[in-house]
Amino acid sequence: MPDLNNIQGDVWPRLPKKAETFYFFSIEDPAVFKQKLAKLVPMITTGQEAKDTRSDLYARKKSGETGLIQLTAINISFSYTGMKKLGKTDIGDDIFSGGQYKDMVTGGLDDPQDWDKFYTGYNGTIDGVFIITGNTLAAVEKTFLHLVQPTFSNGGPTTGMRIVHTESGTVQQDDKEHFGWVDGISQPLVEGLEPATNKPREPRPVPNGVFFIGGDDDYSNQPAWAKDGSFMVFRRLRQLVPEFTSWSGKNCEDPTSMDVIRLFSSRVVGRWPDGAPLDKYPLRAPHDGEPDHPVQKENDFDYGPDVEKQARCPFASHIRQVRPRKDFPDDSQAMIRRGIPYGDWTDIEEKRGGHTLKQRGLLFVSYQSSLRSGFRFVMKEWANKSDFPHDKFAACGGQGPGIDPIIGQVRKYPGKANIPSALGIQEASDVSNRYVDVERFVIPEGGEYFFTPSISALKDELCK
């Protein structure tokens, strides 16, 4: 079982935040950097500290206290080039050592023209990242300027490392991402760290070794010093919100009805915007029409009654493609997600014109003990494969379900997704022949693979 005092808090239970900045750095002098890093280690927020803070926040909220609590937290992760500079080359595999550009761009999924130059080494190699969270971006910046930066300086210029790029995001109202759906609901339960819910339709707890090196069911064969560490994926994903809304209108039965458009787009996502799963509420969100209904952050579903059909939730829907549950009852692909939106909310002018005018999207983060089994498998074998799930051809008219309509990457050839009528498959037939052309609404603009070491690994290995 992972030691909460040894793991970094963003992996589990999550750093409390309303704002977050990723400070990507290059290691200029490894020897000096190690000396400075040793001074930073006591400031890193552990899993236990994050858990205590979150418990305190929940207690304050339950007691009726209002207003933002002044808080910040710090974590650190390293790319393969950073680990190499620190003398550790025995961690990871060819996926980690090759880096995300080689895996996603050279590997044929991402378009190289979409990647920001900063993620291709324009301003220096990205050897690591400081993750700082807080209640505001001003608080985050203050933490960096008054805690992190002075740690790497001698009263003058920063030594040992150099910041080469930053990305910042803020939590949106009701925890929604820019398409308008509550985000971060369907998180896996980590066995040993979280109690089972005892809900028969909710996925069972996942062995902690799927997320933490050295845990139960971890078969990654990493060195002993890496125990309690986790591999982190960072990706900047641009979202084309007006284009997605227009596409939804063009493909639903009545493009003049907002209710019908909402139903169709919810079938594409697999949830209603407030988080309620279509598997439980296929035609109408619970409390629909009530002005102040609570956000339905439900995870109590597994596609069980409909596992061979898609009248309730299409096989190609986003949440079913990336977490298929009973469609693919194997927990080894599960990921812990820690993303945060960036950019302004879509304005009226953009909505009316149907075209994106401002930069917005998601700073995607996931943690897993194996990149090959986690993020990479989900992206390359599930979300971007038109024949997944592999045994659903009969229910889709003889073809595969199609690619994920949200994160599927369409480049040279148009992709398709089997999205049955918004009213579900007619009772006379369990087969859907209805395919829609998929466009790109989420564009990867860069990222990197990192290793998030334990506190003991930082002290005993990376600072030596």
Automatic annotation (TrEMBL):
Q: Which cofactor does it need?
A: heme b
Q: Which UniProt keywords apply?
A: Heme, Iron, Metal-binding, Oxidoreductase, Peroxidase, Signal
Any one Gene Ontology cellular component term annotated for this protein: cytosol
Classification lineage:
Eukaryota, Fungi, Dikarya, Ascomycota, Pezizomycotina
The family database entries (PROSITE patterns) matched by this protein are listed as: DYP_PEROXIDASE
Stored Pfam families: DyP_N, Dyp_perox_C
Protein name, as recorded: Dyp-type peroxidase
Does the keyword Cell membrane feature in the UniProt annotation?
A: no
InterPro entries (UniProt xref): Dimeric_a/b-barrel, DyP_N, Dyp_perox_C, Dyp_peroxidase
| Positions of the Dyp-type peroxidase C-terminal domain | 220-387
Q: Does the keyword Glycosyltransferase apply?
A: no
Organism equals Penicillium arizonense
**Family label:** Belongs to the DyP-type peroxidase family.
Q: Which residues form the signal peptide?
A: none
- The DyP dimeric alpha+beta barrel domain is annotated at 6-147
Q: What GO molecular function annotations does the UniProt record carry, in alphabetical order? A: heme binding; metal ion binding; peroxidase activity
